[in-house]
Amino acid sequence: LSDAVAMENEGMIARSERLYVEVKMAEAERDLMAAQLQVETTLAGLCNTLNYKEQYRPVSTMFVLSELPQLAMLQEQAINNNPQLRQVALKRDLAEEGVKAQRAEFMPEVVAMGAASFYNYQVSKALPNWVVGGGVSWKIFDGTSREHKFSAAKHTVRQVEALQVKYGNDIAVLVEKLYNEMLSYSDRMASIETSLEFSEEYLRVKNAAFLEGMST
Question: Which helix (H) or strand (E) holds 131?
Fold first, then answer.
């Protein structure tokens, strides 16, 4: 831009050409600011992932993976290692145990007991040396209380199962979204490298032509 202003003052270029350079300069500044903000956001995410309170910056240059893992494998790992899904799985186990407990209310209660005498010195022989007993209690009818509790327990299981499926689908979709973004950035990197090579060569040719007086 400073070169364009100087050339305009010397009458070598028109005002419109200097304005064109100003527009490109403003676009470059906006791109730079957006890139800096994106870098800061990425670094914050990196530090959060590594559980670092201070901000760390990678020391290696940018790299692009030549071979990417399969999307299905990444989705499976994310679902299996997600702590929220683990909590939901535990809630499902508890809900299924609740169904078993409510189902047991429909079954009879059986009680068995027994006793034996290991030492019967000076004890009447009329008393038995051992005794066993048993009892059965079966609630035939108590209104609809048991049915309601059993239905509520099964409904809880269905709710937890639906929540587990939803969380799993959400995680799979998020992984796919990030995976596609990674592929897009990888393709853009290859395109940018080609554009950069062309721009550097174009600049070299233009500079050479300018020094020879063949180009403005």
Answer: strand 130-137
